[in-house]
């Protein structure tokens, strides 16, 4: 499985030391040792470090400190996914461990960039404390203590904690998903939507991706390689969205040169929309994401 991970086209590969490993010390320590050996022996085959993350065991387990100690010695890992973050205090514990190792100088790695921390939101307490979690900053500074880069929604853990009953409609998770996405945007963080556990139902996956994007999530976790293409295709603007956004920017640029602040615009035979400053910003966001994804942006219009 480790070797197979190198062939995936996902934006980020998350190597999991938590729930995918049985809970015994033998299994946990063995999984960590195998992963560390793999990442140190395959340095020439590994993707860029921006695409590699590791999900550690949670801070209240006996495995956390050894996990983070070993991970900090690998230059190929720049992102830690931290499960069961319930409050800002939990992030302070993580940051203190990063800082302690940086002060001890353990291992050969000298980092000139912060460790990115992705907080996994898995409980009622976490949702209650979401603003504090999203606004957290390391008391040691980002380079020495890490920086928060994103919020990730672990829906199944959240349902287990709250007794929320999962349904195909996802209606019961609308409030929580919306709050996570909005809070992440308020603090300039990535918002990563839940896993689609129906991994063989690709149509359902596409629907779940679409409403995740509509809620404001910037990406989605994949639990199986077959999900990657659909997730990536859904979390970028469609050709129709790109054309509309580019037309808005092109037309508004002409309107502004004529000292007009708002115009009516009809795209592809649809209704005439009133376009002004907020819709320009939306169009700019769509074009920015499309460019980052390497998608074509039309430059000429009739």
Q: Any descriptors?
A:
two-stranded antiparallel ribbon, Aldolase/citrate-lyase_domain, Citrate_lyase_beta/mcl1/mcl2, 302 residues, metal-binding, seven-stranded parallel beta sheet, 13 helices, HpcH/HpaI aldolase/citrate lyase domain-containing protein, Pyrv_kinase-like_dom_sf, alpha/beta
Task: Give an overview of the whole structure.
It contains 13 helices and 9 strands. With 302 residues, it is an alpha/beta fold. It folds into 2 domains: 2-234, TIM Barrel (Alpha-Beta Barrel); 239-292, no CATH class. Strand 2, helix 3 (64-71) and strand 3 form a beta-alpha-beta unit. The longest helix has 19 residues, at 239-257. The chain starts with a helix and ends in a 10-residue tail after the last helix. The mean pLDDT is 91. This is HpcH/HpaI aldolase/citrate lyase domain-containing protein. It comes from Somion occarium. Residues 1-225 form the HpcH/HpaI aldolase/citrate lyase domain. Its cofactor is Mg(2+).
- Binned, the helix content reads 40-55%
Structural class: alpha/beta
Average of pLDDT: 91
Approximate shape = globular
The CATH architecture name of the largest domain reads: Alpha-Beta Barrel
Biggest β-sheet description? 7 strands, parallel
What's the CATH C level of the largest domain?
Alpha Beta
Structure in a nutshell:
The protein is α/β, with parallel strands linked by helices and 302 residues long.
């Amino acid at each position: 499985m480790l070797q197979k991970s190198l062939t995936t086209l996902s934006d980020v590969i998350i190597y999991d030391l938590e729930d995918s490993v049985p809970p015994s010390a033998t299994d946990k320590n063995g999984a960590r040792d195998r992963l560390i050996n793999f990442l140190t022996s395959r340095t020439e085959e590994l993707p860029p470090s921006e695409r590699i993350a590791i999900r550690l065991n949670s801070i209240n387990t006996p495995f956390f400190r050894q996990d983070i100690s070993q991970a900090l010695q690998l230059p190929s890992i720049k992102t830690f996914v931290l499960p069961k973050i319930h409050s800002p205090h939990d992030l302070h514990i993580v940051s203190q461990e990063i800082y302690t190792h940086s002060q001890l100088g353990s291992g050969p790695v000298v980092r000139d960039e912060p460790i990115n921390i992705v907080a996994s939101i898995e409980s009622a307490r976490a949702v209650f404390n979401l603003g504090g979690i999203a606004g957290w900053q390391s008391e040691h500074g980002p380079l020495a203590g890490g920086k928060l880069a994103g919020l990730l929604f672990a829906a199944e853990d959240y349902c287990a904690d709250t007794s929320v009953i999962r349904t195909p409609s996802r209606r019961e998770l609308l409030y929580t998903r919306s709050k996570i996405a909005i809070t992440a945007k308020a603090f300039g963080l990535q918002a990563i939507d839940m896993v689609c556990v129906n991994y063989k139902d690709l149509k359902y996956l596409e629907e779940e991706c679409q409403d995740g994007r509509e809620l404001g999530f910037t990406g989605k976790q994949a639990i199986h390689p077959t999900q990657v293409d659909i997730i990536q295709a859904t979390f970028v603007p469609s050709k129709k969205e790109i054309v509309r956004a580019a037309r808005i920017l092109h037309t508004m640029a002409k309107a502004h040169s004529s000292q007009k602040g708002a115009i009516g615009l009809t795209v592809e035979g649809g209704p005439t929309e009133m376009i002004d400053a907020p819709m320009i910003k939306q169009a700019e966001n769509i074009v920015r994401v499309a460019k980052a994804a390497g998608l074509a942006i039309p430059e000429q219009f009739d």
